[in-house]
């Protein structure tokens, strides 16, 4: 492989590492109520041992779940690798402006109400994608369950599966286009004692898609086997590149591909 391709692969890996292996995390829309979407990731990071700083962001509170709260991302005054957005759709644009001004490197967007619901939502999603790309920010979502880096104690998710117990750290990385399948696979791994390195759900894929996540796992030193749930692929070149990277790293890839017709699905 030419040296320039190796460099480009390394750059792609480095660009996504603030999302998948962050050193600092902010939760925008953080809640003091641990059962709310904005409260769950605060609770998870506190309980499950994330070692970096956790910054709850909510203009209504000075303290959230025992942590100092900030009115905005800019008010934190320290580097933020990834910001989790647990917000209604009408508040996302202002929060994104705040993230850009604060120099946030990555965003995990739980928010629904985009391409999955209407043409207007699809237009809003396209505008969102254009805005993050222009700012050099990478985005996971919208309409996703988020991600977990089990070895690093990163739980940028509101998935309730963790309340039944944690999966043990391991070397299998999972990327799923379906949040429901991702949650089910996590539960199966926990019940069967199978360890995971990463758990990623991609949602609507406004920016990062299945292939981006697969390629990152191919270069992740803590992942030895990659599992995937794929409903569709919009960029065959990127997917082939990701699979080639996994092959070069001698990492098996096991993918469930959903059929597009009743007969194909059967």
Low-confidence stretches: none
Give the integer mean of the pLDDT values.
95
- The secondary structure category is alpha/beta
Radius of gyration: 18 Å
Report the sheet with the most strands, covering strand number, pairing sense and barrel closure: 6 strands, mixed
Looking across the biggest beta sheet, what order are the strands in?
9-8-11-10-12-13
Oligomer: single chain
Share in β-strands: 15-25%
From N to C, what is the helix and strand string? HEHEEEEHEHEEEEHEHEHEH
Number of DSSP strand runs: 13
Report how far apart the termini are: 40 Å
Structural shape = globular
Helical proportion?
Answer: 25-40%
DSSP helix count? Answer: 8
Could you please describe the fold and organization of this structure?
With 266 residues, the chain is an alpha/beta fold. It has helices at 3-20, 40-47, 89-102, 119-135, 179-192, 210-219, 236-248, 262-265; strands at 25-28, 54-57, 63-64, 67-68, 82-85, 106-109, 138-140, 146-149, 154-157, 169-176, 196-201, 225-230, 253-257. It has a six-stranded mixed sheet with strand order 9-8-11-10-12-13, with helices on both faces. A five-stranded parallel sheet has the order 2-1-5-6-7, with helices on both faces. Strands 3-4 form a two-stranded antiparallel sheet. A hairpin with a 2-residue loop joins strand 3 and strand 4 (67-68). Helix 6 (210-219) packs parallel to helix 7.
């Amino acid at each position: 492989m030419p040296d320039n391709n190796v460099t480009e692969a390394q750059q792609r890996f480095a660009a996504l590492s603030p999302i998948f292996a962050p050193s600092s995390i902010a939760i925008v829309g953080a809640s003091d109520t641990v059962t709310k979407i904005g409260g769950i990731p605060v609770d998870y990071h506190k309980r499950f041992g994330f070692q970096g700083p956790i910054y709850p962001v909510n203009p209504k509170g000075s303290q959230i779940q025992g942590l100092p709260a900030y009115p905005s991302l800019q008010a934190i005054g320290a580097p933020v690798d990834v910001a989790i957005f647990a917000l209604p759709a009408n508040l996302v644009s202002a929060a994104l402006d705040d993230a850009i001004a604060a120099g946030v490197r990555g965003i995990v967007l739980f928010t629904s109400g985009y391409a999955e619901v209407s043409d207007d939502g699809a237009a809003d999603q396209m505008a969102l994608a254009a805005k993050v790309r222009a700012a050099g920010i990478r985005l996971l979502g919208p309409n996703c369950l988020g991600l977990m880096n089990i070895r690093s104690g990163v739980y940028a998710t509101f998935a309730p599966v963790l309340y039944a117990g944690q999966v043990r750290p391991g070397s299998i990385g999972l990327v799923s286009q379906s949040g429901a399948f991702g949650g089910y696979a996590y539960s199966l791994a926990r019940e069967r004692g199978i360890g995971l390195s990463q758990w990623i759900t991609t949602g609507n894929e406004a920016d990062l898609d299945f292939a981006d996540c697969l390629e990152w796992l191919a270069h992740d030193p803590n992942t030895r086997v990659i599992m995937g749930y794929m409903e569709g692929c919009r960029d065959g070149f990127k997917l082939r590149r990701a699979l080639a990277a996994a092959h070069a790293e001698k990492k098996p890839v096991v993918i469930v591909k959903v059929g597009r017709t009743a007969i194909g699905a059967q």
